[in-house]
Design a protein that fits this description.
The structure is a homotetramer of 383-residue chains.
Chain A lengths: L12 E4 H4 L17 H11 L3 E5 H4 L6 H18 L5 E3 L18 H21 L3 E5 L4 E2 L7 H22 L4 E5 L8 E2 L4 H8 L8 E3 L3 H6 L4 H10 L7 E2 L18 H14 L5 E3 L9 H27 L1 H7 L12 H9 L4 H6 L4 H12 L4
Parallel strand pairs in A: 1-2, 1-10, 2-3, 3-4, 4-6, 6-8, 9-10
Antiparallel strand pairs in A: 5-7
Helix pairs in contact in A: 2-4, 5-6, 9-10, 10-11
């Protein structure tokens, strides 16, 4: 039965085909679930109230499909999306599964592999555009090393830049209107992946031919794997106008890529994140890039997907409550005055001439323990 | 007795006053070593063959010193530097020790603290300029949070930008000629520090008023704490023209800040780093931001500092040997042809029309195990 | 005003003198709070409803105190405890602060240091016994290495065993009635600490002269620093009859020792822990070995301590609710039959002769996503 | 051509069938290498000078094989071993690949799964015994959780104990002469695996019916994943008489299970390990539980395997050199006197009466920086 935490289209919840369709294989174990055909995945997403579905090229079209097969598959998929009221906001390309990419795609030492990766991406862009996507994600899962003997890492950066510049031009040329969203990850499946953090991509974007066409797609698990504060990475991207897309899931730090249900590993971090996205008015998709435990059948997968959305909506409600809490707001009131800090000779002289009461400024308790405890009590629903 | 690993001035080895002067206090234990006066530290650095000495303002001048005391101290210090043939290539500011900074300096919620931090930095720049430094490092050790309740992280980014813009203007105004080097760290002493990685700062620099005046100061330990590949961060910075300074030390991942002797925790990573710096012709200081174990007396501190430099020089020799190794070089020879990847309609059509032998490209062994094992044997001196 | 989450003595909440008395010094910053005298700490603990206070010898008695000073301090402290209705359930010894222990106490290479550590511990036991403590914690904070060159680690194990055996004999001899609780930590303040995990101590205890006198004192932060599941460590200790004491706090994995307010970093892990302790009927102290952020004054410290207890009590209530939830309980009902697994030739033959429907057993969905989502909703108070 | 680092049978180097036979599939990518038949793997191991080959039941015999197929396979395999001069020192059982084990084997909530796991292990023991193995490894790769909602962890410990007790009885009954070696891992493929560390198993063994039949099989990567000092775990096991087997490979901390070539990630840690095993006279197999990068073909796999053994032998030579280095040995000479620490009233009184020169003991430099730098120079071959 619907309640306050039932998803609606305006919530912009999306799932990748590879998430609800994940079959549960891992490095030590075999598949545990039957395949879920893309059109069945779309039906499931429609049923549970999701707004969008995302895909890699080969989630939908097999790598060996003929053009005719490809066209038939795409036609059927579009019909299914329409039938179930599901849109395709984002598309991406799989540059990691096939053995040809075992040592990278855009950064491979083999120029043929680099060219093939470009071609494959262009076709994935054709596919995405045909399905109506306006966001194109690039995750360079194999762009990395197990030994830094294999190439100088600055060479890898140059190769990556060439590729992204090329693809921007292709989008402009074809009038696809894509904004690219670069997705960072520190390691796995490579020993180390180049462009390990969202920050690294923000630095990289500034060196591109068309920085205005390119932003980032931060993923909770990818920053948390390295023990980094995901909110801080998202906020930096947002503040720079570069938050194009976001991958929501969960992850314990310092481990293999877990892709857990959103909020299930660190619900407080998830709370700050939801609060931030809602407070700043982020208008893009809320994409759940997660998958169900291997213990689940298809019914369990559905519960998993529902849980991602419910937890987001519960946390959104808690964020509103936090913002409306009088004691919390009073603790937040900023101290000091906001003197202008634009440089000028006059300001310089005034600033250099000031005397500060260092001990006095240091003495004041900031009541952050109270503030954080109140947050916990809002979060736990006892306030 | 001098050998092939004895440092020379052209090696540009520098140490912070706070490194050889570290007294060994830690969160669970008291100081273990007597203080080392700055002029004695300079004498020690001269004796062991270091080229430069770096300092925070308060490493040399107490925070409460009168202008007269300050001037006397600086005069004596300059004389000591000259006497011992040691230069001051870099200066920085301590915005973390005093309790006034317990919740940040440039990003504090208290406008008075932010102003005081600016003033203190301007005076530290005066000091650095007087000592001849042309690099000014900013490490925001307290710019962070234990609870994200305290401020929105995008506000912190804005405050940080205001401060760096202001300081750039001050340097221009005073004609100090500083290049700023921003130093990232993921956590400690704060629960999370803003601008957690070198990449985050590369992204931030692109949003400044004077990006050309600002680069980064990556530190081995700070990236390795988060389990990140330090070489990759350094290479990205170098490729973007932003490698202004570097902090060499060592660190086991996923731990408190250890600041171990260079090369002593992960000598293979140190090898790739030295090789990169030498291969690309990095001409800046090689700064050892490390300190001796608490088990050491002053003699042990000297051995520690000597060890940092010796290991660098040993690894530099190994890097030359690696570059000259015929088998290694033959394994590195790149496959494929380097077809141009500038976008054009013609290139687009040619690329889209190519047929790739995916299976053939995937089949070829890349011999990276052999390459890495040869590296190990070069490193271990058995080749 | 008291509510359902107001602590009572029967909750057995205790704090170390060093927790509420923490002055906020860290490796990069100075003290931020005035000292809190032990008798004032006891008053504060009484005021906020704590049941017990724990201490290291030197938290109460300075290392250089004369016997007369020591006796006066102890007398006053006992009076304060009585006055404020606070008991001393546990005592311990500081073998890490003084420089004499910079390379270990019981495992030092210096036999004099080892002897001094024993003597100091015996006197701390005298003190603890006098104050009524029946639990004696041993945390070997300096028993470790930065370089494994310094001693063979099996030698360290032998030295540690000698010490614990000796101290057991001393307790028996003096009829102190102590149960020892060994506390593990993986690193910090040493590069690596011997006996890195609670499990390591469980293995060690089995090799002692009096294993029945010795158990463990697991600490949330110490297992979580290494990214380990704290609940699993506690459960193994409990199941083996070795859970003597517990240190409650919180910690993000892969970082410096944070000692955060209980439940504030990973509230779901805290929930499972509280549920376990309550479900199994753990009757020992709930000791909060945490400290307030450096942003706090003494009022903030009080809020911090209150928050530890409130969160425990909130989670205890949530655990009861979880146990009483009909849907959760129905999902938990165990499948299969519990056939006896005591070995016998007859059972062996019967087992070897069975045919299992492997595919059938593999097919069943276990509904753990639903179960975990229900847990989240109980925890967040929306169920 | 053979050199000082060419393996000989007395070095007792072994590889699992699953190591050289690894086909390179990972969570994000497909297989990259053709299958290597067990008898071909044995031939390869013989060719490169390995002494032994280990196996899981299903590495050799498919899970669905008929008894006749099984017997034929085993006969052929024994012949191949004999032909190539390779022994089978260790056998184990695969309780993780088949979906039936998706929620554990011995600790599953389903009694049928638990029984099937026992039966499968008994048959794997039959197989191992037939092949001449005297060590039986148990790695409970699926004994764990993604959510602790699914079972109480003390229940898991009890179930695990029942299973190991049963299997000990089976070995005794069948007169197989097995020593069991329990292998810990903190996580992956489960969110958390029970018995996360070697220490946890040492504690568990003490609670078994036949502790004398059971020891541990520590794996480099499994302790290093959690950032723990592997040497310390091995030393504790050795000192307790429980080091039955060892898995050599390498791993960066805080990541997915990498199983890199021995010594290739942290060669200094590998050095201390080899030195310890050789110094104490460990006489068991040196098993390399690693696999080649995905970039490799079968020739690369061979280089990988050769590299594991070469690096071990290089480090063994370096360890001898370290032991023979006069300066190192002089730095190691122990300070203080070894006074007896057996408890007695007389010793007690003497100890309590001693006066220690705390400051004097604290003042002495221990020269560990020098000692560690000398170690680096021995390791790097410049001494």
């Amino acid at each position: 039965m619907p309640d306050a935490y039932t998803p609606r289209p305006e919530d912009k919840f999306s799932f990748g085909l590879w998430t609800v369709g994940n079959r549960g294989r891992d490095p030590f174990g075999d598949i545990v679930r039957d395949p879920l055909a893309p059109i069945d995945a779309v039906a499931m997403l429609g049923e549970i109230g999701a707004w969008g579905v995302n895909l890699h090229d080969n989630d939908l079209v097999p790598i060996d499909a003929t053009p005719a097969e490809r066209d038939r598959i795409v036609t059927e998929f579009k019909a299914a999306c329409q039938r179930h009221g599901v849109v395709v906001p984002m598309a991406t390309v799989n540059l990691f599964f096939d053995p040809v990419f075992r040592d990278g795609a855009f950064t491979s030492n083999d120029a043929n592999v680099r060219s093939y990766a470009l071609q494959k991406t262009m076709r994935a862009m054709d596919l995405g555009a045909e399905l109506g996507a306006r966001i194109f994600v690039l995750w360079g899962g194999r762009e990395g090393t197990e030994t830094d003997a294999c190439r100088r890492p600055d060479v890898a950066v140059k190769r990556l830049r060439e590729a992204v510049n090329y693809l921007c031009d292709y989008s402009l040329d074809r009038k696809y209107g894509f904004t690219f969203a670069l997705e960072a990850k520190p390691n796995e499946p490579r020993g180390d992946i180049y462009m390990a953090t969202t920050g690294a991509y923000l630095g990289f974007i500034a060196t591109l031919d068309h920085p205005e066409m390119v932003g980032v797609n931060p993923e909770v698990a990818h920053e948390q794997m390295a023990g980094l504060n995901f909110l801080h990475a998202v906020a930096q991207a947002w503040e720079a106008g570069k938050l194009v897309h976001i991958d929501l899931n969960d992850q314990a730090p310092g481990r293999y890529d877990q892709d857990f249900r959103f909020g299930s590993a660190n619900v407080k971090a998830a709370f700050w994140l939801v609060k931030f996205l809602e407070d700043v008015g982020y208008a893009g998709p809320r994409h759940f890039d997660a998958h169900a435990y291997r213990t689940e059948d298809h019914e369990g997968v559905k519960e998993f997907a529902r849980g991602c959305m419910r937890t987001y909506l519960i946390l959104r409600e808690r964020a509103k409550q936090w913002n409306a809490d009088a004691e919390i707001q009073s603790l937040l009131a900023e101290s000091g005055t906001n003197d202008p800090t634009r440089y000028s000779p006059a300001h310089r002289d005034q600033l250099l001439g000031r005397q500060f009461d260092r001990a006095g400024l240091a003495r004041k308790g900031l009541a952050y323990e109270r503030l954080d405890q109140l947050t916990m009590e809002v979060l736990l629903g006892v306030r």
